[in-house]
Structures are given as C-alpha cells and as structure tokens.
Amino acid sequence: MTFSPRIIKELLQTSDHQLQELKETYARLPATRCRRRTRCCSMLPEMTLVEALPVIRRLGEMAGDMRKRLIQKTIGYFFLNPVEITSCPFLEGQECRVYPDRFFGCRSYGLWSQAHYEALAVRDRKAKKHLQEQWKSLGVCLPKKVVDFQVPYCLCVETNGPEVIDDKTLLKASDRIEAISAGFSSRHQWFARRYFSDLSFLLSALMFGYKQSVQMKFTLVRDMVHTENRSKLDRIIQELPDLFAAFP
C-alpha cells in the first residue's frame, strides 16, 4: 500500500473530475486579503490526496530549475521538521509558488472563529505530544521549541466585501473536500493513514521508497538532535535529481 511514480501519473491523468469539484468547492469560499506577514506559512499543512494532486501537477509544469528546487525543499522539510521550525517549502520570500492551488488549510487560516481555532490547536498539541513520546521511545528527544511551537491565531485576514463566513461554512467545505478525495478509495486512505496526509512524506517516498524514507528520517533526525549538525541532510538534498522531470 504505497504510491509510486506510475500511480501518481495515473491519478493525474484520471482525476480531472475530482480536481474540478475541488476547484468549485474552493470557489465557494470568499476571497480574502491579509497583511502578507506569512505567519501562517511556518509549516506545510495537512491535506487530502485530492488537494495534493494539483500541486504535484503544478510542479510538473514548472520550469526545471524551480521545480527541482521546490522538490528538494519539500523533501528537506520532511526530514527536518521534527528538529527545526522552517517555513512551508513553497514559500519563497513572501511569494507562494503554488498559491492558485494552495490547500484548504491555507485558505481557511484566519477565517475560523478563535474558539474553533483553539480547539484545533488543542488537538495539534496532543498529536505533537504523542509524536514526542514515540520519538523518545526510540531514544530521540525532540527539541522543546519544536514540540511547543504553535502558529498563533490570526487577526490579519479579512474577506473582500461584506460576506461573512463562519465555522459551519468552513466545516462544510472541509467535509466536501474529504468526500471528493474519498472518491479515490483506497489511495485516499493510503495517503491519510500511511503518509499522515503529508505531501513532503509522499515526495520523499517517491524519491527513496517508503521504508527507506522512514529509516532515513530516523537516522537523520537522531544525528541532528545529537550533533546539532545538518550537513549530512544538506548533502543528500543537494544531490537529489528532478523527481518530476518525466511527469506530464
């Protein structure tokens, strides 16, 4: 139950209907404006498989140098995120390189009520605590600054015009996106359960293989925690080929 370049190509070639439904769901959300502080871009958000596919397609359509750079940054993010808070790999300066296809988590940030956002934050803290305990059982103590990190509630996002959006509307959109992605059946479940809804994990597994990516992450994270040196990871990332050079 793993993805391969062949499966990704197949999904890209046969998912036009689902991607159109996703686009229509996004279009029901109000246009927004923010002060472009990019505070919400401090991490790559969780997503469904149907949200990941447009970004993969966009990567395939990019000029080679940019595509290779973003793939390297995304795979680097997968290995680095337990030990360091880095920005989303698609953020460069204050520009999102995949902005038209940005994920629901990006689109909804700043629109949730503070009460609902705090509930999401509590869930996230519990998940991080569980992750910390898993790493500790393997002999690795993750940095406290990473485990405790939380993106603050945003007061900078406003809708363009008089339209008001509430939690109920956002939850309805989220449920609709989940239902669209569930149309991919077992592959939707693979992405959620085996890859933890993480595009950086998916790209790493496509590059190195699923088991090898997991093994590499443990080794690299353990070494970075113990030595505070990421030179080994940097060498690996610099040598990565263009994963999607042959993608349509």
Shape: globular
* SSE topology string: HHEHHEEHHHEHHHHH
Largest sheet geometry: 2 strands, antiparallel
Average pLDDT figure: 93
Strand order across the biggest sheet?
1-4
Helix content: 55-70%
Give the amount of beta strand, in percent. under 5%
Number-wise, the strands total 4
The helix-and-strand class reads mainly alpha
Low-pLDDT residue spans: none
Radius of gyration: 18 Å
Span of the ends, CA to CA: 24 Å
Domain unit count: 1
Tally of separate helices: 12
Top keywords for this entry?
248 residues, mainly alpha, two-stranded antiparallel ribbon, 4 strands
Task: Provide a descriptive summary of the structure in words.
The structure is a single chain. The protein is mainly alpha-helical and 248 residues long. It has twelve helices and four strands. It has helices at 5-14, 16-27, 49-61, 64-80, 104-108, 114-137, 144-147, 167-182, 186-194, 199-208, 210-227, 231-238; strands at 32-33, 91-92, 95-96, 158-159. Strand 2 (91-92) and strand 3 (95-96) form a beta hairpin. Helix 2 (16-27) packs antiparallel against helix 8. The protein is globular and about 55 Å long. The protein starts with a helix and ends in a 10-residue tail after the last helix.
